[in-house]
């Protein structure tokens, strides 16, 4: 079991801090009285949004910089107790169209961050946000951490390398690091402009805007982690003594087909309609079919489990976007 | 089964072509009347050596260029039927001391090569030289292709990414590519200046020079592939219709401890002495313990197996360096 309270008063750096998960984490960290710095590039295609820190902007420091800028990273890492390393290019499709940019952010910048830790702050504790995308198309379900890594897009390959740099620096250079393989995370402050972060964001936006949304396929099974649960996992991983050098799956409190998810979203909303359509070819080639994770390892070692039921998470998300949608489109 | 003869008269590009395996492949390709271009950077720490093509220099074209130079690569790929993509940084220790250079060569350049193929030569057939290093410390023996990838050094991580780019471009972009995971390859034309390519090269050099050599540890089990066998595998993978998108282990005709290997080398040579010493700390941290591969998959699908017995391979290697050592030190 872990004690998140250990983070109280500590110096914390969050890369991708104005993004979806980073900003939700920031709200939580402020509640824990941590000394928080958020680093974000605010590149328009990515998830960073200054509105995400509304209400806490005076209690944190924001550094607008790119993780590819190793000079800034080295400076910001100085004296930090915890690094939540969440910055990344997340779009599978963008990674196929522009593989080198994905490599620069998801591979090279990660190596620079770790080198900076090794040289300037070897006692920092790092939690890296990895992704289920490293597994590729599941060979069995639920997918546990013993599943082969067979990524099906450039993003998955580069995230795999980025994750392993962290484990390696833990094992060889005594940097304290671990990695969480996130599945579909959703909730307030996610990008809903397009499907670069998650298709579910687009669905919820369409519902809020009174427009029909498209469900590709519909039969695929997925699990979804509400962002507060993901934030819990990040904090538990950071403060636990068991997490060193470990890789943990996150998961959802249920497994659901995309069609049933669409139904549930419409039901929770009380409005909305969707249509089933076939997969666009460029997506189909990199689609992974059914996926859901076994999160037994993090449950056993850190005591984490998803707490927010899907219907409740959808309700909270819809409430958020109903009032704040203008800041996300 | 495969027909290596399909390569006769074809246009072939070998990256790392002046290196150990590349140059042995080049000699074979010339024998097959292929139209051969060797690309090599001749960076002094790597395996490239102009002497390696003595005797065939007038029957091939050599392009001195770095795989990181994407412009040259795109030009040289034009019209090529087969690409043997062997260029790489191979030193595990160098990859830990200078991880970014390893990334540039083993990751980014690979992505550039594949992008160039996609854009300028989508019908090329590629064989990528991967490494057992992607497996890290074996969880079981012999290691087959279903073994988890858990690399223990930066080189292993970057080679893993480089390999998966190839498989991905095969699966998604219809580039024809496959990967061979080489284990300890040895034979004439290997680098013997230092242990950057293989420790065995240094041992043989010491024997030839009448100096004692050092065996670190001695108990570790390994398998060794004689370079002619590795070249056979490359040619079979290139010309087989079964190899598309596949990853194959190579292996050795026997499994041997390093101490027994040292004994055998001295016995085959008729001279030489060694001493057992403990592992230097920087090496110990990234050592993988016992390793030997199951090569059943490539045997079953392509009909490959190692043909040259270890003692015979050592004898041929010693003969080569006895007459040509001055060109390798």
Structure explained in plain terms:
- The structure is a homodimer of 329-residue chains.
- By secondary structure, the first copy, chain A, is of the alpha/beta class.
- The first copy, chain A, has a domain at 4-187 and 224-251 and 293-307: NAD(P)-binding Rossmann-like Domain (Rossmann fold, 3-Layer(aba) Sandwich), CATH 3.40.50.720.
- Helix content of chain A is 39%, strand content 17%.
- Chain A has helices at residues 20-31, 70-77, 92-97, 99-120, 154-173, 199-208, 227-239, 258-269, 281-284, 296-302, 310-324; strands spanning 11-15, 35-40, 61-64, 82-85, 125-131, 176-182, 184-186, 213-216, 221-226, 247-249, 255-257, 274-277.
- In chain A, the strands form three sheets. The first copy, chain A, has a seven-stranded parallel sheet with strand order 3-2-1-4-5-6-10, with helices on both faces. Chain A has a three-stranded mixed sheet with strand order 7-9-11. A two-stranded parallel sheet of chain A has the order 8-12.
- In chain A, strand 5, helix 5 (154-173) and strand 6 form a beta-alpha-beta unit.
- In chain A, helix 1 (20-31) packs across helix 7 (227-239), helix 6 packs parallel to helix 8 and helix 8 packs across helix 11 (310-324).
- The longest helix of chain A has 22 residues, at 99-120.
- The termini of chain A are far apart.
- The mean pLDDT of chain A is 94.
- The A-B interface holds A 96, 99-100, 103, 107-108, 111-112, 115, 146, 148-154, 157-158, 160-161, 164-165, 168, 171-172, 285-286 and B 96, 99-100, 103, 107-108, 111-112, 115, 146, 148-154, 157-158, 160-161, 164-165, 168, 171-172, 285-286.
